[in-house]
Design goal:
With 170 residues, the protein is of the alpha+beta class. It contains four helices and seven strands, in the order ααββββαβββα. It has a five-stranded antiparallel sheet. Strand 2 and strand 3 (62-68) form a beta hairpin. Helix 2 (20-35) packs parallel to helix 4 (151-169). It starts with a helix and ends with a helix.
């Protein structure tokens, strides 16, 4: 089996678990990531290989997104990197806020890893009271349930993020 066939098998296995309503959405996003040069790989867990996929590009040594099918919860999760885009809709802001609050504000700020070249690369969430919290861009952000109307914006953000990774890799 060649690499293209392996990718197709992995993708089909992951998508087959996703609800019929979400399958088309996740397929379009996954196929676009592959077009951008990202390779889907099964995520290994302590209990073995999961049905979830991570999409990485060896040329930039970065992960763009993850798709986590979730049968038990009846919904799937899209986890992605999008810090190169500075203006985005509420679904992305909700994702940033949720991850900040899930850890009670820990794991925020710059980790000092030295990977940023110049300006910090990450997400800033501004609370209604004006308080700003920074989250490192090395961390992917889990989005709330996505809808068909979110796909165009997601694809645009994937493209912008990929272009950023490619520019940084030069």
């Amino acid at each position: 089996m060649n690499n293209a066939e392996k990718r197709k098998v992995l993708l089909n296995k992951c998508l087959s678990i996703i609800s019929d309503n979400d399958r088309k959405i996740y397929a379009e996003i996954a196929e676009y990531a592959i077009e951008l040069g990202y390779t889907p790989k099964a995520i290994k867990t302590a209990s073995g290989v999961s049905d979830a996929l991570t999409f990485t590009k060896s040329k930039v040594n970065r992960t763009l997104l993850k798709i986590r099918p979730n049968i038990e919860a009846g919904k799937s999760q899209l986890v992605m990197t999008f810090f190169a885009t500075v203006d985005y809709s509420d679904i992305f802001k909700q994702g940033i806020r949720r991850v900040i609050e899930a850890f009670d504000g820990r794991y925020t700020g710059c980790y000092g890893c030295g990977r940023c070249k110049g300006k910090l690369q990450g997400y800033t969430y501004t609370y209604p009271d004006g308080k700003k919290v920074f989250r490192c861009g090395r961390e992917l952000i889990e989005l709330p349930a996505i809808k068909p109307e979110n796909v165009k914006e997601i694809l645009t953000m994937l493209k912008v993020q990929d272009e950023f990774f490619m520019e940084q890799n030069i």
